[in-house]
Amino acid sequence: MSKPFSRRSFVLHAAAASAALAAPAVVRGQTAPVELTVAYSIPVLFKDLMDGIARDFTAQNPNIRITYRAPELGYEEIMQRNLRDAITNSLPDVAFHGLNRQRTLMERNIPVDLRPFMDADAKVVELGYSPALLSLGQVNGRQTGIGFAMSTPILYYNGTLVKEAGGDPSKLPTTWDEVIKLAAAMHDPAKNRTGMFFDWTITGNWSWQGLVLSHGGSMLNADETRVAFSDAPGQRAMGVLRRFVDEGKMPDIRPETMFQDYFAGRMGISMQSTAQLGRYNREVGGRFPVLCARYPLSAANARLPAGGNVAMMFAKDPVRQKAAWEFIKFATGPVGATAMVKATGYMPGTTIPAQRKDMLADFYAQNPNHLISIRQQDVITGWYAFPGQNALKITDVINDHLQTVVSRKEPPAAVLPRMASDVQALLPAKS
Known about the structure:
Layout: H1 7-21, E1 34-39, H2 43-60, E2 64-68, H3 75-88, E3 94-98, H4 102-107, H5 115-120, H6 131-134, E4 138-139, E5 142-143, E6 146-151, E7 153-158, H7 159-164, H8 176-186, E8 194-198, H9 206-214, H10 232-246, H11 255-263, E9 267-273, H12 277-284, E10 290-293, E11 304-305, E12 307-313, H13 318-332, H14 334-343, H15 352-355, H16 361-366, H17 371-375, E13 380-381, H18 391-406, H19 412-424
Parallel strand pairs: 1-2, 1-3, 8-9, 11-13
Antiparallel strand pairs: 3-12, 4-5, 6-12, 7-9, 7-10
Helix pairs in contact: 1-2, 1-14, 2-14, 9-10, 18-19
């Protein structure tokens, strides 16, 4: 089982790595500390972690002080806040944004390109940034951000309920047909048990993208002039979503209810992000085995969207930029990544911790559930960002239509064309 993040373990890792990884002083001879404002979201996953990172960064960099803004609830909320900040000239110096929101920020010329800082810093080679995951922080040739916490969708199983339903915990389902069949066998209202919940509400239509991409589809066509998620792969994806309800007995509930049901042992299967793994382990507390399995792939060209967030620099002043770069390196580098993995279930953007016994090598060996996401990197792709000024609105439109399918108000065949039409109307016109 994963152990909760602790202040002591973080300090030990920081001390062990400081000789090789400690950054030079940002401004030699500086008398007044640089005070950086930093924004992030999803406090249920990140607050304790972020507090620990700030404390240990400041211990190594006494000339830089970190002040966190009150964390926003989710990626949409922090995006809306920072778009307002751009208008009022009150942006934070550093912000952690969802991978799919980088494009919207770049279209408004808000982030600072991090590539010049990387090229000028000889220490970057020691940070072990993965080129594949580093590419997820790139937009139009610019290094918009550096991966802090990366995830993929996976399935969480209650090992006890799998056995009681006649399943084999050592051979978990690999197709949606098998998942739905097992969920139906687990479902037992008389025992207050629910078979499954597929969290279609995850921020930025991430779950809908996962269904479509895993069926070989895409959100828009190649030149981004036409909605493509209503093509054949999307039709199959929408059909599977409805089958979760009709055959798998998935209830129309909110994620908060799902979490409580799973943690209490009343739900058999939960589709969620690997980001939640640390939370699942802590909340279940060993009362039943938490088993994780790969997300079913339904096409030869199947892909899965990378989730998570990147550290972005908004500071414009050169002195604050230097300080912001040091903080970004610390948070996304081996020391910060080690603490992040243990506190959550995300993948790091650096390969070094998995290779070092004093960081994550032993941890991964003892916690195989954390390896599921890493093993899905063979099919990972970008979390798609819709173009134009209506990107946030498109997210809400898609969610509203998915709700009608999950609530069984309308059949998928009627909902999908209308959803595509509504999104098409919100895309920017192209000459």
